[in-house]
Amino acid sequence: MMTILKGVVVPIVTPLKRGNQDKIDEDGVEKLCNFLISKGIQGLFPCGTTGEGFLLLKETRKELASLVVKKTRGRVPVVIQTGCINTKSTIELTKHARDVGADGAAIVSPFFYRYSLDDLKDHFVTVAKSVPDFPIYLYNIPDNTNNDITPELLKSIIDEANNVVGIKYSHFDLRRIPEYLGYLGENRAFLTGVDELVYPSYMLGACGCVAGNANVFPEPFVRLYDAFLKGDYIEAKRQQDLIIKIAHTLKRGAHLCYYKMALQFRGVEVGDVVSPQKRLNKEEITDLYRKLKSLGLPLENPIC
């Protein structure tokens, strides 16, 4: 039976050795996985946008995928983002994810170049059919890829590849959610990838979120999900309001150095970002710490 993601799924940052951005920090991977699982999250999603997946070498992505599966030890599902700019590399990484024991793969649209809907359908169906018994999630982030997985495209892919079990939807247009859900049915997953819209997405029928800010502060995401399941919508909305403040403080993931620095404040060392990204300077670090502290957030490793 295929594992279907739900709840709070974290697209983890990639722990790297200080001074060597091509080297995964194995201890950092273990500490990050343990930290997140201890806070009650329901899944891990390595090699995605937040994980700098498209800046990592292919072999580094494979190493990270293997390590996360190993360090998680089956405690929560692990779905590896395996999408690349071309079909051949995507198939290679997807088969690797299957072979190392992941619970599924998420595939972003081919990016940079614009493709027809038929091109995109052929790409996704070809990848899915290369691993017919392995769960596949589509990953729609059209503002970044220039290629939109429309509800109609999703339906056409599902019609030909029954191991496509869900979609991560990283877009602000909530109006499309009911249409996606209509095509997905009850046995597939719709996961929002917009942290500021987790609560309204749940109200529209999403079964979970893939939340970048949950790398640093998983607690409000878990509280929101638990409150929603209990029907405590006032508490769910309160947690969503806090998440919005966190997202704005951490620059909505546009600069991943904010996530990595904030994780240091929480006592989790994950190293530097991949170039051409830059680390924060001293003034930016001090300002970030001050703003997070003003929100009353847990900061176990005060450095200011």
Automatic annotation (TrEMBL):
Keywords: Lyase, Schiff base. SUPFAM superfamilies: Aldolase. Pyruvate binds at residues 50, 210. The active site is at 139 (proton donor/acceptor), 168 (schiff-base intermediate with substrate). GO terms for molecular function: 4-hydroxy-tetrahydrodipicolinate synthase activity. PANTHER family: 4-HYDROXY-2-OXOGLUTARATE ALDOLASE, MITOCHONDRIAL (PTHR12128:SF66), DIHYDRODIPICOLINATE SYNTHASE (PTHR12128). Belongs to the DapA family. This is Dihydrodipicolinate synthase family protein. It comes from Aerophobetes bacterium.
